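Known limitations

Structure tokens in this collection are predictions and should be treated as such. Users comparing against experimental data should check residue numbering before alignment. To illustrate the layout, the record for Peptidase C45 hydrolase domain-containing protein is reproduced below. The input appears on top and the generated tokens appear beneath it.
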Amino acid sequence: MQKEASFLHIKVQESDPFRRGQYIGERVSDKINGNVEIYKKVFMEYANVDWDTVRKTALQYVEPIQNYAPELLEELKGMAKGSDLDLTDLIALNTRSEIMYAYTQRVIPECTSFALSKNNMKNQHVVIGQNWDWKTEVKGNTIIMEIEQSPYPSIIMIAEAGHLCKVGFNSAGIGLCTNMLFSSLDKAEIGVPFHVILRKILNSSTFNEAVRAVTLPHRAFSGNYVIANDKGNVINLETGPGGKENVHFLGLDEGILGHANNFINETHFQDKTLEFLPDSPARASNIKNELSKFPQLSIENIQDALRNHINFPNSICCHEEPVNKIQTIASVIMDLTEKSMTIAPGPVCQNSFTKVFPDFSQAE
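Generated tokens:
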């Protein structure tokens, strides 16, 4: 099988959030600046909004971030300095969803995720993962980051350079996958941005703390959060913008969770995603069906499920299509028991997986 070069893997050891961000900014300045240029085009293409307007809009999220996680605002300030950008550029990158859908309801596909109980695995490990689908252009600016950040847990994650987080796990055994959701409540709400919440989850030391990172703040945007830990706790939180009244919970079904870009729970608000992504329920169903074929799964079985092409081109394995130029950016499998990340660039059917053990892992 063709093996595309894996993602740049950087390591950061810094307890001071500003200096941590500055190091990241300096280390991947070209990729952060590259993402700014990409999103300038994306906002103009999808919403007819120029970058100056985007940056001005981003300012309204500074106070909610400061109140929710001041250390993460400091990290963004450092990242801006290290990459020779303005803070508003970094805020804009981390509020791309919130700002985009304030100006347009043109939804872009993102992600199929899963979680498995240890009883569903041959090795009796807790495993979660996903295919992350997004704009093809950002793949070259996507990185794997290991962050040692006392007093918070150490983290390994994959994300677009300049983003605080996307998908990963930490030294406390807490893992995170995520999906974009879009609801009738998404109308430029001022609150804590989606990508900031993602990082706060991975900065958590306990499972309950990770869940509270989602339920307690006033959220700016809808989103789906798959949170698990190495002890076998797994929960899925489907959220609209606002507070805990707009949080809906899902658990494992016969040891398996599958999720895509639509609300599975009944809600008091409208699920707008289905108007634009009618394939989403099929992807969620397909990943669950693929993972149900074996009484106990190997990592190779999971890899095959993530390469699935049922309902192509709207399949779990997403290939670049000519209009939106969306594809699977990365396929990620996280073993929370042994603390490993097995990852392949997309389209995953064309590339091999590589297993990565972060420095904080005790595995050999």
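For this record: The chain has two domains: 8-103, 112-356. The mean pLDDT is 95. Please report discrepancies through the issue tracker.
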